[in-house]
């Protein structure tokens, strides 16, 4: 039988938006699994911790480096992928960086519309492109994991521009998976539900068990909001050999939110 493993020893993983929240949890979990992790973010200081992600990983005996990266700039994305060559090249690319700007159809300015699409959609697209080019050039089987959302599938009030970016992530994932299958590169996405992080101001201050009250969009069948660790586990699965026959999928990690 095949010898499947979630051991990433010797692999190099790039995680965008890994300074705080979900990205930080993903980066730490990959490091715990043996990977060298590049923290690609515009800021190094976390909003939800005292120690920067790369420093925390090194303190725990892992290997990590912070690379200042603005994912809305394709050159910055290519630069962090090039930096990964110093560690052997990208084996796993996690396009996690994201931005939330709320507002109705009539509230959003052209500047805000462009800003959120440049980060959430353009950043994912060129993250896929840069990582795939590196993997193909090196002749390796790689994995790309993008961050979608429940908003990839359902519209939510006062989130029209955010929802449109996450719908784009879903189709970028499926299109890239189709194109890259011939190169043995898998492309998948994660669809988080209501996750208790600083991504939306104040959520991290609420205990996850308060999912069905106080400020969350609607009750969650699982009875709680998700945590960054819930998403990190999904990221490791999709990048691992256990998901070797999985590509073009959006794995929902939403506590059953989409079922009601």
Describe the structure.
- This protein is of the alpha/beta class.
- Helices cover 35% and strands 14% of the residues.
- The chain contains 6 helices and 7 strands, in the order βαβαβαβαβαβαβ.
- It has helices at residues 21-32, 53-59, 74-84, 110-138, 160-180, 228-239, and strands at residues 12-16, 36-41, 63-68, 92-95, 143-147, 186-192, 250-253.
- Strands 3-2-1-4-5-6-7 form a 7-stranded parallel beta sheet, with helices on both faces.
- Helix 1 crosses helix 6.
- The protein is globular, with a radius of gyration of 17 Å.
- The relative contact order is 0.15.
- The model is unreliable at 200-214 (pLDDT under 50).
List its traits:
260 residues; alpha/beta; seven-stranded parallel sheet; 35% helix; globular
């Amino acid at each position: 039988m095949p010898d499947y493993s979630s051991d990433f020893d010797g692999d190099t993983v790039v995680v965008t938006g890994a300074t705080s929240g979900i990205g930080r949890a993903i980066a730490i979990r990959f490091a715990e699994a043996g990977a060298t992790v590049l923290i690609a973010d515009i800021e190094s200081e976390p909003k939800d911790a005292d120690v920067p992600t790369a420093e925390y990983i090194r303190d725990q005996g892992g290997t990590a480096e912070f690379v200042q990266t603005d994912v809305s700039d394709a050159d910055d994305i290519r630069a962090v992928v090039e930096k990964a060559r110093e560690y052997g090249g990208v084996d796993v690319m996690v396009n996690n960086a994201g931005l939330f700007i709320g507002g109705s159809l009539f509230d959003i300015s052209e500047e805000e519309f462009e800003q959120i699409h440049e980060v959430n959609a353009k950043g994912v697209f060129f993250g896929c492109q840069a990582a795939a080019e590196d993997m193909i050039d090196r002749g390796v089987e790689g994995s790309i994991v993008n961050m979608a959302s429940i908003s990839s599938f359902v519209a939510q009030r006062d989130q029209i521009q955010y929802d449109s970016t996450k719908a784009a992530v879903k189709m970028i994932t499926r299109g890239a998976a189709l194109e890259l299958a011939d190169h043995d590169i898998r492309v998948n996405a994660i669809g988080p539900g209501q996750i208790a992080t600083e991504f939306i101001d104040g959520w991290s201050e609420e205990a996850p068990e308060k999912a069905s009250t106080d400020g969350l969009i609607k009750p969650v069948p699982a009875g709680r909001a998700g945590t960054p660790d819930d998403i990190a586990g999904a990221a490791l699965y999709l990048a691992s050999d256990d998901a070797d026959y999985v590509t073009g999928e959006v794995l929902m990690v939403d506590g059953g939110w989409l079922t009601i």
